[in-house]
Amino acid sequence: MRKYLLNWGVVSAALGVVSVIQTTREGRRDWRLILVWAGWALSLVVAVTSVHDRSKELSTEH
User: Fold this and answer.
1) Disulfide-capable partner of 47 in 7, 10, 29, 32 (CB 3.0 to 4.6 Å)?
2) Is the confidence at residue 61, as pLDDT, over 80?
3) Which residues cross the membrane (predicted)?
4) How many Cβ atoms from other residues are within 10 Å of residue 19's Cβ?
């Protein structure tokens, strides 16, 4: 779990939710808001997946 919490890619993707929440509060509620949330979720998934894959690579090298 620590490998995810200390990875800057995961941290920055997770903190990206702050701007998404601001957009949700201040912006119009239409189809673009769904795309903003989907984009944030996908960026978080990509960051977590890359950490997982890198961890798997390192464990098989030893």
Assistant:
1) 10
2) no
3) 6-21, 33-52
4) 11
At what angle are helices 17-26 and 8-15 packed, to 10 degrees?
10
User: CA-CA distance, 37 to 40, in Å (whole number)?
Assistant: 5
pTM: 0.83
**How many distinct structural domains can be found in the chain?**
1
26-38 residue pLDDT tens: 988 999 999 999 9
The whole-angstrom separation of Cα 19 and Cα 49 is 22
Cα–Cα dist 17/47, whole Å:
14
Domain range enclosing 19 = 2-61
